[in-house]
């Protein structure tokens, strides 16, 4: 099973600010949804709670030391599931058991989860936001990019819907 990170990060690797994203980029949200729909997505409890609701059409595996404290609404949309795990290994094993339409599992944040998963991932889907965010509270970990090969790159200019320019990048482990 392929393990992939998916994230958006500023030029200085900020991924979060005040409990949410420091930008509004609708094309990035669409890209995120398009890649993760129908898949398992592993995320930390704070990242899970930063969403208004569980991500529809996906199985969210929430990493937490207190599984009973993870709130799961009763009215989940079809194809949506929320499970908990107490370690990254447990979350990956849960994703293997569930299976799915493909052999890909996504790591969706936050900082610590990305750092723990980075040595194991096969692919990184990175939206590089061309901005420097000075007061971010969450950062994407440093990556040894020499261990990865850039296999896809699509630039997107700033426009009336996107306050910053950005680039969709796909990096595969060599």
Automatic annotation (TrEMBL):
Transmembrane segments: none annotated. GO terms for cellular component: cytosol. It catalyses: (6S)-5,6,7,8-tetrahydrofolate + NADP(+) = 7,8-dihydrofolate + NADPH + H(+). Gene3D superfamilies: Dihydrofolate Reductase, subunit A. GO terms for biological process: dihydrofolate metabolic process; folic acid metabolic process; one-carbon metabolic process; tetrahydrofolate biosynthetic process. The keyword Oxidoreductase applies. Residues 3-173 form the DHFR domain. Pathway: Cofactor biosynthesis; tetrahydrofolate biosynthesis; 5,6,7,8-tetrahydrofolate from 7,8-dihydrofolate: step 1/1. GO terms for molecular function: dihydrofolate reductase activity; NADP binding. CDD domains: DHFR. Keywords: NADP, One-carbon metabolism, Oxidoreductase. Its EC number is 1.5.1.3. InterPro entries: DHFR, DHFR-like_dom_sf, DHFR_CS, DHFR_dom. It holds the Pfam family DHFR_1. Belongs to the dihydrofolate reductase family. Key enzyme in folate metabolism. Catalyzes an essential reaction for de novo glycine and purine synthesis, and for DNA precursor synthesis. This is Dihydrofolate reductase. The gene is dfrA.
């Amino acid at each position: 099973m392929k393990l992939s990170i998916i994230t958006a990060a500023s030029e200085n690797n900020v991924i979060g600010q005040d409990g949410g994203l420091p930008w509004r980029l609708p094309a990035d949200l669409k890209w995120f949804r398009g890649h993760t729909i129908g898949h398992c997505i592993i995320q930390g409890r704070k990242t899970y709670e930063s969403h208004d609701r569980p991500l529809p059409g996906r199985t969210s595996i929430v990493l937490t030391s207190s599984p009973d404290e993870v709130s799961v609404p009763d009215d989940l949309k079809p194809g949506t599931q929320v499970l908990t795990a107490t370690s990254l290994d447990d979350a990956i094993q849960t994703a293997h058991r569930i299976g799915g339409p493909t052999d890909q599992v996504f790591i969706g944040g936050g900082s610590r989860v990305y750092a723990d998963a980075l040595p194991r991932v096969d692919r990184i889907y990175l939206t590089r936001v061309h901005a420097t965010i000075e007061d971010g509270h969450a950062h994407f970990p440093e990556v040894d990019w020499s261990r990865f090969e850039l296999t896809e790159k699509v630039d997107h200019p700033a426009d009336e819907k996107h306050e910053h320019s950005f680039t969709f990048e796909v990096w595969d482990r060599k």
